[in-house]
Amino acid sequence: xxxxxxxxxxxxxxxxxxxxxxxxxxxxxxxxxxxxxxxxxxxxxxxxxxxxxxxxxxxxxxxxxxxxxxxxxxxxxxxxxxxxxxxxxxxxxxxxxxxxxxxxxxxxxxxxxxxxxxxxxxxxxxxxxxxxxxxxxxxxxxxxxxxxxxxxxxxxxxxxxxxxxxxxxxxxxxxxxxxxxxxxxxxxxxxxxxxxxxxxxxxxxxxxxxxxxxxxxxxxxxxxxxxxxxxxxxxxxxxxxxxxxxxxxxxxxxxxxxxxxxxxxxxxxxxxxxxxxxxxxxxxxxxxxxxxxxxxxxxxxxxxxxxxxxxxxxxxxxxxxxxxxxxxxxxxxxxxxxxxxxxxxxxxxxxxxxxxxxxxxxxxxxxxxxxxxxxxxxxxxxxxxxxxxxxxxxxxxxxxxxxxxxxxxxxxxxxxxxxxxxxxxxxxxxxxxxxxxxxxxxxxxxxxxxxxxxxxxxxxxxxxxxxxxxxxxxxxxxxxxxxxxxxxxxxxxxxxxxxxxxxxxxxxxxxxxxxxxxxxxxxxxxxxxxxxxxxxxxxxxxxxxxxxxxxxxxxxxxxxxxxxxxxxxxxxxxxxxxxxxxxxxxxxxxxxxxxxxxxxxxxxxxxxxxxxxxxxxxxxxxxxxxxxxxxxxxxxxxxxxxxxxxxxxxxxx
Length: 653
Ligand SMILES: [Zn+2]
Prior knowledge:
- The protein is 37% helix and 15% strand.
- The relative contact order is 0.10.
- Residues 1-19 have low confidence and may be disordered.
- With 653 residues, it is of the alpha+beta class.
- The termini are close together.
- The strands form four sheets. An eight-stranded mixed β-sheet has the order 1-4-5-6-7-8-9-10, with helices on one face. The chain has a six-stranded mixed β-sheet with strand order 11-12-13-14-15-16.
- The protein contains 22 helices and 21 strands.
- It binds zinc ion.
- Zinc ion binds next to loops.
- Zinc ion is lined by residues 127, 175, 177-178, 303, 347-348.
């Protein structure tokens, strides 16, 4: 329960904005505190801000920008890079100066020549799209998230490089910001006719869909926090996400690859462009590969060597990645291509030129992931927990002072905890943490022990004034979970998240903190939902669709339900038995000796309709589904389904 507006007195005719103690409306962002400003001054003194190599590299080869830097889908704006026009000059006190610098670099938008024959459009989405010129046309490497931004990028490229046809597409890995916009650069007909091959690493489709299907709703909700989608852009709002500015919100699709890349050393030539591949599975993505272009002496590192410390575990939630394998694949890239390259580029940020600089860049990135991995494991073997290692670990000076190793997207803190988690799991071995109370129950007890909510807020205010924001967040979280309608606690907690956001060097931490403050002040903003793409649904196997259905079964509601349903895919000739019993929906393709309560006959293409839970008897007929046996069976299954909540509360109970 939240309220966005409240009358100051019950007799007010017009609701006035809630007021903080200093008189500003409680929903408005506050200035930075002296503690945050002092922290920023210390950082300014300790980091090499006079090194402007990155700025030179981010502008090098500039050919022209999209003007205005806005992309629309019909009337709807799906990308607005111009909203970041405020990122000039020195950092204001409300933004960490290191993040300010990174965001300023990420917001540089336009078409750039990487080397003759290779071009990049940067600043038109979270990711970059690269264009590799061939004999007849151009290969598109990683076509962004949305068809609209990819199309705009291709248009910008063609305005400067001529109207070359797209003769191939490459997906470097299975994340949405590297394939979602393919339909903006190539048509289904050209792919189907074999005119435009699509190359991707082995396992691409499985990984591209599995990451977002089962836990997709919760991930999307948390991604809204992580990328600050609902925050206004500005010095007191969203300034960027470290990896790129934010995510575009246009049409997301999935054109499946036509050619799997399976082995390191595999060579392919498309439109005269020779490519040598290095497989890098289990790194930043489960299916990922690096691409070397020998004729251009250029190495594309996909997303494994960028100008950030990347995520071992992204804070939107995901399966934890393998920092050890990541480092190993960077060593292998140096070994394979280090003597033959003149430059390194990636699908985020700007390239690095020169062989010596490029190899040192790759080596430092390798050292970064290897150091975090090895030191975390060393320290956990000394009995330290993830939380303890995260505070104790210090990077070597060469990594600490390398801009591209800074924690703008991943952080040392949360990556160390992720490495601990990969080896040891959620439990830290201390039995006090084996069976703790959940937040509301714990909150009530903490608040009572600490003398009641008002007393906690009074003490927390002293800690706030002393700049101990981490502690204030910890104690006020208990108050808000115990008494979510305690206005003073909510306001002070919002102010606290805001200061933590202002202080954060990590773009996603800043977004998460400011999103939390926004929800406490103004109420839930839900999830800026991208509807599940029919392209993605079409790639799901029947087994995946049944699994997706099973995780929507409301167990307690149908403990006593016992239902069997055969699904007969008429066009492919396969038959599945679904059984609902004990609140579990299981499936098998094995032959059955008993009859099911009902048999659904349907073409495979109609299966997503069933899996979406939308197949009421009337809808079923419309989708070409015929039911044999108990006509009520499908309705009983649909009645057992629960809908995921895309707007669930995060900072309140
Ligand atoms: Zn990416």
